[in-house]
UniProtKB/TrEMBL annotation:
The protein's name in its UniProt record: UDP:flavonoid glycosyltransferase YjiC (YdhE family)
Record's keyword terms, sorted: Transferase
Source organism per UniProt: Streptomyces echinatus
Keyword Transferase in record: yes
Pfam families associated with the record: EryCIII-like_C, Glyco_transf_28
SUPFAM superfamilies, per the entry: UDP-Glycosyltransferase/glycogen phosphorylase
Domain Glycosyltransferase family 28 N-terminal, chain residue ranges per copy: 3-67
Domain Erythromycin biosynthesis protein CIII-like C-terminal: 281-399
C-alpha cells in the first residue's frame, strides 16, 4: 500500500512520524512523509520518501500571546492550503493526517475517495477531564472544560476556513464550512490514534468511540547512529550533566538564555550541555558544551536532568529515559505538558520562559537533582511507557484497513 503521512510545523511536529513511517515501511508498505520546512534529510534518513508541503512555519513570526498565536496560525494555514492537494494526493492509497493537516486532508478524502486515519500528537477532542491544551492549564470544571474544548475547536475552524474554501474550489467541491466538515467526520466516527502516553494523559472516558491513546510516536533512530565524538568525550569526563534546550522556541534570545543557563548550572554545581536550537544557545568551557540536533533516545538516559520547553516530544523523551525535568514552557500546548510533568511528580512547578531567571533555574535544578522523588517519578513513568507501542498500534490499524477497506479501525 502507498501510504502518505502529512504533517506540518516545526521539527517536533515532524520527527515523531519518522518512527511510524519506518515501521510501516518494514511491514512492506511504500511510505512517503509530506512535511513543511527543511526536513528532507530527517525523513530520508529514516528510509522514507519526502514531499515538501507549501508552507514554512518560520516565515510567520514568533508566536506570543493568544491573539498573536491565532494570527500566526492563520497565516501559516493559509499558505499550507495552497498546493496542498498537489503535494499530498498524487499516487496515494491511504492518508495519515496530523492534527495540523487533518482539516485539509478531510476534503481530499471527499474528493478522491482515499481513506484516511488521524495520528495526532495532542488531545484535541473536548473532554471534561481537562481544558483545551492551547488555552491554559486551569480546570473550569467538567462542564466548563467541555464547553471550552468546543470553543477551541470553533476557533480552529475559523483559522482553517479560508484555506478550506480555497481547497474545495481547487478540488471542484461545493462549499462546505470547516465546522460542517468537522461535524461530518465526528458523526462518522473518524478514527484518531493519539501519539502520547497514558502515563501523561489517560484516555478520557467521555471521548467518543474511535478516539484512542496509542502511546508515544517515537522518532526513528537508525541502528548505526551515534552521539558526536566531542559529546561522547564530555559525557564520560565527569558526572552526569544537564541538558538545556528550547527546541524551535526562543528565537533571537540565544545570548541572554545562554548566559542565564551557564550561570544557573554553575550555581547549582552541575555540568551542562546547551542544545543550540532556534534560540542559538552557545557556550564552551570545561563544564559546558554546545551541541546541535542529537537523538534524544541516545542522549537523555545519560543525563542528570533536562531543562526544556515542554514540547510534547521532548517531554515524553525525558520521561522515557527516566530523567527528571525542569519545564520552561513558551506557548501553545507547552504549558499543558509542563503541568502534566509536574502533576506526575517528574518535574517541579513550571517556570514560564518570560519569568525565567538564573536564580529560579538554579533553585529548580538543585531541587530535581538532589531530591530523588523526581527521579523516582520519572522512572515509574518510564516503566509504564515501556509497555506502550504507539507506532505498532498505528501499523495494526493500517493492516485492518488493508484487509477490509472502508471499515472502522
Amino acid at each position: 500500500m502507498r501510504i502518505l503521512i502529512a504533517t506540518a510545523g516545526s521539527r517536533g511536529d515532524v520527527a515523531p512520524y519518522t518512527g511510524i513511517g519506518a515501521g510501516l515501511a518494514r511491514a512492506g508498505h511504500e511510505v512517503t512523509l509530506a512535511a513543511t520546512g527543511g526536513f528532507a534529510s530527517l525523513v530520508q534518513d529514516a528510509g522514507l520518501g519526502f514531499r515538501r508541503l507549501p508552507a514554512d512555519p518560520r516565515a510567520h513570526g514568533k508566536a506570543g500571546g493568544r491573539r498573536e498565536l491565532m494570527r500566526t496560525a492563520a497565516g501559516f494555514v493559509t499558505e499550507l492550503g495552497r498546493g496542498f492537494a498537489d503535494a499530498v494526493a498524487d499516487g496515494t492509497d491511504l492518508l495519515l493526517l496530523s492534527a495540523t493537516t487533518a482539516q485539509l486532508g478531510w476534503h481530499l478524502t471527499e474528493a478522491t475517495g482515499i481513506p484516511s486515519l488521524g495520528v495526532y500528537l495532542q488531545p484535541t477532542a473536548p473532554t471534561g477531564d481537562f481544558p483545551p491544551v492551547v488555552t491554559g492549564t486551569r480546570s473550569l470544571g467538567r462542564a466548563g472544560n467541555r464547553a471550552a474544548g468546543r470553543f477551541a475547536l470553533r476557533m480552529a475552524d475559523r483559522v482553517y476556513e479560508p484555506a478550506v474554501a480555497a481547497l474545495r474550489r481547487r478540488l471542484g467541491l461545493p462549499h462546505l464550512s470547516a465546522a460542517a466538515m468537522r461535524r461530518r467526520r465526528e458523526e462518522a466516527g473518524w478514527p484518531v490514534l493519539h501519539g502520547f502516553s497514558t502515563a501523561l494523559v489517560p484516555r478520557p472516558a467521555d471521548w467518543r468511540p474511535g478516539l484512542e491513546v496509542a502511546g508515544t510516536f517515537w522518532p526513528h533512530v537508525g541502528s548505526g547512529e551515534r552521539l558526536p565524538a566531542a559529546l561522547e568525550d564530555f559525557l564520560v569526563a565527569g558526572p552526569r550533566p544537564v541538558l538545556v534546550g528550547f527546541g524551535s522556541m526562543a528565537s533571537g534570545e540565544g545570548e541572554r538564555l545562554s548566559e542565564l543557563a551557564v550561570h544557573a548550572l554553575r550555581r547549582a554545581g552541575l555540568r551542562g550541555i546547551l542544545q543550540s536550537g532556534a534560540a542559538g544557545l552557545s557556550a564552551e568551557g570545561d563544564d559546558v558544551i554546545t551541541v546541535g540536533e542529537v537523538p534524544h533516545a541516545l542522549l537523555f538516559p545519560r543525563l542528570a536532568a533536562v531543562v526544556h520547553h515542554a514540547g510534547a516530544g521532548t517531554t515524553a523523551a525525558a520521561l522515557r529515559a527516566g530523567v527528571p525535568a525542569v519545564a520552561v514552557p513558551v506557548t501553545a500546548d507547552q504549558p499543558f505538558w509542563a503541568a502534566r510533568l509536574a502533576a506526575l511528580g517528574a518535574a517541579p512547578e513550571p517556570i514560564p520562559l518570560r519569568a525565567l531567571t538564573a536564580e529560579r533555574l538554579a533553585v529548580a535544578l538543585d531541587l530535581v537533582t538532589s531530591r530523588q522523588t523526581y527521579a523516582r517519578a520519572a522512572a515509574g513513568a518510564a516503566r509504564h511507557m515501556a509497555g506502550e507501542d504507539g507506532a505498532g498500534l498505528v501499523a495494526k490499524a493500517v493492516e485492518r484497513l488493508v484487509r477490509a477497506p472502508g471499515t472502522p479501525v
